Amino acid sequence: MLKIRRDLVDAMVAHARRDHPDEACGVIAGPEGSDRPERFIPMLNAARSPTFYEFDSADLLKLYREMDANDEVPVVIYHSHTATEAYPSRTDVSYASEPNAHYVLVSTRDPEKHEIRSFGIVDGVITEEPIEVVESYRFAHTGPDDVPEQ
Amino acid sequence: MAVTVSIPTILRTHTGGEKSVPAAGSTVAEIIDDLEANHGGIKSRLVKEGSLHRFVNIYVNDEDVRFAGGLDAKVADGDNVTILPAVAGGAR
After folding, report:
1. Which residues have a Cβ under 8 Å from the Cβ of A139 and sit 6 or more positions away?
2. Residue A117 — φ and ψ, nearest 5°?
3. Most CB within 10 Å of its CB: which of A134, A137, A138, A140?
4. Across the interface, do B59 and A61 touch by the CB < 8 Å criterion?
5. CA angle B18, B21, B26 (to 5 degrees)
6. Exposed, middle or buried by CB within 10 Å (0-12, 13-18, 19+), for A59?
7. CATH superfamily name and code, A2-134
8. pTM here?
9. Is residue A147 pLDDT above 80, yes or no?
10. pLDDT digit string, tens, across residues A11-57
11. Which residues of chain B have a CB within 8 Å of the CB of A91?
C-alpha cells in the first residue's frame, strides 16, 4: 500500500495537468527505510513527448547525489499518461529499476477527472496496490525512528 | 588505475549489498570487466551487444559517458564512476 499526503497527490496531479499533452514525471523522496514520501521533486521530461518520458541524464545524477547526501530514496516515481489509462505500459515495465519504489501513474486523458494508481514493478511483474491518502503522517507511524511530521 | 564505482540499489545483489566498490581500469569497458571479475553477472546488466545498455547511465565524475565515447570513455586514477538506471517510460 502507498500511504501518501494529500498535498503530494495534488502536486503530482497539478504537474501532470500543467504538462499535458506531454507526459510529466518526477520523484517524491523520503528517508531511507521509511517508505514515507515527503519531498516533492518534479523533473523535466527530457523527451518532451506525449508518449514517452525520460529524466535528463545530468538531472538524474544531480537528483541521486542529492538524495544520497540526505539519506533519501525515491519512495514514489511518478509519471503521467495523457491519452491512455493509468496503468504501466510495456516500456514502463522494461525501464522500472527501483524495486522498492511505488510507481504512481496519473492519467490526464479526461480533462475533468484524473485517474491515479500505484504499482510495484519488480522483475517485470506489475502489482497494483491501494493508495491511502492522508492529511498528515503524524499519527500514522509507530516505528522506532518515528519523528512527527507535518 | 583505481576508481570507486557507485552501485544502484537494483545491482547491489551483485555486490553483496555494497553501495560502492573499488574497480580498476583505464576505460569504462575495462572497469566493467573488472567489476564482472569480482561481482559475476553485473556486466550483462550494463552492456548489451557490445554497447552500453539503454536502460543504464554510467557517469565518470559528472560526465555521462554516452557523450564521452561510451564504453571507450577514459577513466583516470581516483575518478568516481556512478551507475544509475535510466528513469524513463511512456504510454506505448
Report:
1. none
2. -140, 155
3. A137
4. yes
5. 160
6. middle
7. Cytidine Deaminase, domain 2 (3.40.140.10)
8. 0.91
9. no
10. 999 999 999 999 999 999 999 999 999 999 999 999 999 999 999 99
11. 88-92
